[in-house]
Amino acid sequence: MTSEVMEAPRGLRYREAMQTSLTPPPIGTLLRDWRLRRRLSQLDLAGEAEVSTRHLSYLETGRAEPSREMVLRLADRLDVPLRERNRWLAAAGFAPMFAERRLDDPVLAAALAAIELVLKAHEPWPALAVDRHWTMVAHNAVVPVLMAGCAPELLQPPVNVLRLSLHPGGLAPRIANLREWRGHLLSRLDRQIAASGDAALEGLHEELSRYPVPETDRVASHGTGSDVVIPLVFDSAFGRLSFISTSTVFGMPTDVLLSELALETLLPADAATQAALRGAAG
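^ that's the sequence the OP posted. Answer follows.
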């Protein structure tokens, strides 16, 4: 039994098996990996979950089996994604709790209609919806205008938004602050990997990191000290545009797919961008 906090290696090998195999690792292995990912000691997690450190240690080593309630309580304290919570339940011998529907499932029709409505309402500002791997699942009428001229193979479905943004055949040559924006996107992807443990995102990060990077940007660094407010400066057919990106997710979703969807919106960062987009829409 130990209360040490160990940093989980980013490339833990069993994670890939966890995502590609029909048989998940033991629940104790999953629990320990996610505890380490959250940088919590057994003592920390035991206190948050209101269980003894000894019992938590027994769960991780397989000397004790958790109840369904305990699985969900620990997953909640560790902020485990819904998709992974289903895997935890299966590993512990219980049925999955959260539905994993497809986009075309009639049950999701109302939610998807709401997404389309929100995206449309943001016009003339660009807005799109992406899944957990940054695959574009919906967009408003402004997005294709900005994507015009990209390499055809990058626009073939499924379109990965991060690949399209940083690929030299995509939007990258038009991003005036590519070094700065690239750093912002990779930092955000790092946080997503740390939160989800998704091996596919790790592969995407490695791919994006290999794309060429200019020595300098065409505009001065914004030097905010925070990647939260780094703008996207984009040279378009309507002139130089400057955007601030925002991300919106569903609150308290009970469906795996909905929990993984995010609405990405680019809002004008200056009056010139507002005027250019309003004029283009007109």
